[in-house]
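[Q] Does anyone have a clean structure-token version of this?
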Amino acid sequence: MPIKIPRELPAFNVLSNENIFVMNDGRAGGQDIRPLKIAILNLMPKKIQTENQLLRYLSNTPLQVEITLIETESYRGKHTPAEHMERFYSYFDDIKNEKFDGFVITGAPVEQLEFNDVIYWEELKEIMEWSKENVFSTLHICWGAQAGLRYHYGVPKYRLESKMFGIFKHVVNKKNAELMRGLDDIFYAPHSRHTEVKRNDIEKVKELDILSESDEAGIFIVANKDYRQVFITGHLEYERNTLAEEYFRDIDKGMKIDVPKNYFPDDDPNKEPIVNWRGSASVVFGNWLNYCVYQSTPYDLKNIHYNNK
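[A] Here you go.
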């Protein structure tokens, strides 16, 4: 799917060099189609890195996608140049009168805090409430998934004894689910988190289905019945070296941290990690765009209503 982004956005050159189809406003305007409107609430510290990761997978189908990047107003990170944020990002107040086909809420390095202690929790709650009437399908990632499950369905999170950190095997629980189409019986995905949600809490919510899980990493993909809310507890979007960067960052800080599981060959941090989750990431993001968004969203976005598929 050609991604419509400004030529000046760093992801434009990154993705173009990977032979991924990106287009600027001029070329997009010459196509007589309605692009899918996808907004990304980027809560990650390294926002440019996260942009590149997500846009790589949101570009992997035949239709045109128009991206809107959003940041919180109640907290502004310090790891991305201010000029980048001012040029490419909007606040929620800037877009709250718009409607979107799809919405992505990223992870954030705040999972060890209670939800109410997160600086932007009240703002995020407002955004998640807004999304019910103004977004057709919302994809929540990692802490974003825990936050969404807590806000929409009251599902609690629990602190882990040690960080869930590495690449883990997963199984498909519902092979006929549209979001799972094309996934292998066993597939791999990265996790990097200190907290978890539990099966017994989710099973109490009749609106939710557990679509995928891992013997070691636990619950992975959850969705409500009509895919208007999708929750992924890991990081399918991660690149080859993302976990390595996290590991060496914490080592440099003098923190006690285990080597990411099933990641470095022979568990040797001096060896380059082998990517074995790229295929599953392409399938899941592609299925979300196709089945949860494109195949179901109304042509006129004014007709988006909560639980009206």
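[Q] Thanks! Anything notable?
[A] The chain has two domains: 1-30, 32-240+275-299.
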